[in-house]
Design goal:
The chain starts with a helix and ends with a strand. The strands form 2 sheets. Strands 5-4-3-6-7-9-8 form a 7-stranded mixed beta sheet, with helices on both faces. A two-stranded antiparallel sheet has the order 1-2. Helix 8 links the parallel strand 4 and strand 5. The protein has 2 domains: 55 residues; 187 residues, Vaccinia Virus protein VP39 (Rossmann fold, 3-Layer(aba) Sandwich), CATH 3.40.50. Helices cover 39% and strands 20% of the residues. It has 11 helices and 9 strands.
Length: 269
């Protein structure tokens, strides 16, 4: 069987099939094109069949491959972490626009570390700290920081308790669990395989945003920012929560689809 034969008959989406084929053969993207009419080596064909079956069983491609691209960089992922999504790049963009020179930033609930590591790579002058309650997730985040030579300090703990005595931060960012506990999407697609505690707050989807908004003012420097990613229909609720925490200059930023995706608020100067 050639790669051309495989791509013609597979039930997978072609882009997913090519990613799995690249992993099974070790070929580059260019070689997938130039060698697509060569018979697949028996070992590669067997490996590809096994990978295809895992995907047909519903396992996310990112977990099968152990990586996903984010902000132009490859990041390791595992079933202990969320799979990076393009929407989170809007949170990174907002943070880069507001982080001062030599600024201190805290990524709470870092997961695979995509936010903190990306900020550290884009802003080598900044001082990044990333925390998570999951030691398994932190291990992946530390692996990603090392792979990208990113200067990030890591600590394990729940929310603000992870850093009880740190000086104030110029920026606190988070992509917290924000899916409601009974949302049917939790039982669909890739979400079935991702860690539930990173997806849902097992409540109304807003409890973690409340924790962040209520605790951030005491941990922010004057004029510092809190930035939180949330669901497409949670913008109004997030703005109300930020206002109740006496944050100023509250704004919700849209994603590329026009959905409200990131709410930001500033501590008074």
């Amino acid at each position: 069987m050639t790669l051309e034969d495989y791509l013609r008959q597979t039930a997978l989406a072609k882009n997913e099939a090519r990613l799995l084929a690249q992993a099974a053969t070790g070929w580059t993207r260019g070689q997938l094109v130039t060698r697509d009419r060569e018979p697949l080596p028996p070992a590669a064909a067997a490996a590809l069949a096994a990978l295809e079956q895992r995907r047909l069983n519903g396992e996310p491609v990112a977990y099968i491959l152990g990586k996903r691209e984010f902000y132009g960089r490859p990041f390791a992922v595992s079933p202990a972490t969320l799979i990076p999504r393009p929407e989170t790049e809007h949170l990174v963009e907002a943070a880069l626009a507001r982080l001062p020179p030599d600024g201190r930033a805290w990524d709470i609930g870092t997961g695979s570390g995509i936010i903190a590591v990306t900020l550290a790579c884009e802003r080598p002058d900044a001082h990044l700290t990333a925390t998570d309650i999951s030691p398994a997730a932190l291990a992946v985040a530390e692996q990603n920081a090392a792979a990208h030579h990113a200067r990030v300090r890591f600590a394990c703990g729940s929310w603000f308790d992870a850093l009880p005595a740190d000086p104030p931060f110029h920026l606190i960012v988070s992509n917290p669990p924000y899916i409601e506990k009974n949302d049917p999407h939790l039982q669909q697609g890739d979400l079935r395989f991702e860690p539930p505690s990173a997806l849902t707050d097992f409540s109304d989807g807003l409890s973690c945003i409340r924790i962040l908004a209520q605790g951030a003012p005491a941990r922010l420097a004057d004029g510092g920012w809190l930035m939180v990613e949330h669901g497409y229909d949670q913008g109004a609720a997030a703005r109300e929560i930020f206002a109740a925490a006496d944050l100023n200059n509250i704004e919700t930023l849209p994603d590329l689809a026009g959905h409200e995706r990131v709410t930001i608020g500033q501590k008074a100067v």
